[in-house]
């Protein structure tokens, strides 16, 4: 009827939301499906292999999400991009915690490290691209370096996620802070005090010179 | 001869550097001292209690480190402050990984959460104070909001640490990026292209208006 590996990956998502990563068992995942633990083992030898496959699955969704972000202008698209990793994180807190647990395992686990690097590269590339567009069309200041901003925002988004898990700092406050950074630091017409909205998009009318 | 609890806390630091947090055992800590595992259990019931005591010990050192940061001007002091959590991290990578593991445990562990909140508050407060000084003496632009910058930089520093552990992003690159932010976004005289150095301090000569 349905595709077992896909079912298992969706079940893994639900199980991570409920149990986090460290405590997760193959049985927890089986409990989220109609399959037995043995059938899951038929597809994935162990929890680690399943988690690696899950990260690949997550990456495919991530790539779609950050490809061609919504927005009329580069500033709007940049806000959409950073928000996609912060403001819209309505995933269960346990899921974000699980991702942080996986990051903390990364130095001991080459397969995790390689997957995390792909996420990091893809997000950095996506930011660099939209910032480059913005510099080219005059939305952003001409002295803005897309490489520097891309790395800066990737680091900031990592921090927003970590601080959310570690001390419960609200993701929407981090999103607002980064909108302020985009408005103050990047927009070529920052003196005009152009509103950089959050939920309803960014008003950068008149920002291109 | 020496103070057993202090010896144990120092041994915990060394053991975390070697083994990380998840795999750490009381025996690993005992192996770093002249004490038996039983003597360590005499002072601390379990690994968790010892880790909580260790975080308190770390916090005391942290408070000293961020109190009255070196520098002639608020901009220099702000760089010293952020560098203290990034550029100078010559601690073993495993130690930083251990701290990230502890952050990832925080949602399940009130004692950890409370300690992490103290670190977060102390760093935010320290940044807010030096930024306020800088706004007051004209080093920083008068439209700079110390609360916003304090939270922004705390988030960024969290991100630098996470990205360093997760994908090996160099801490000195993150430090350089944040110096750029301070120079471009905060300094009142940013058009003068004032050098914001790293190791040898910050040259903000002429920045106060």
From TrEMBL, chains A, B:
Residues 25-44 bind DNA. It comes from the Archaea. PROSITE patterns: HTH_TETR_2. Pfam families: TetR_C_6, TetR_N. Gene3D superfamilies: Tetracycline Repressor, domain 2. Coiled coil: none annotated. GO terms for molecular function: DNA binding. Residues 2-62 form the HTH tetR-type domain. Keywords: DNA-binding, Repressor, Transcription, Transcription regulation. This is TetR/AcrR family transcriptional regulator. It comes from Halobellus litoreus.
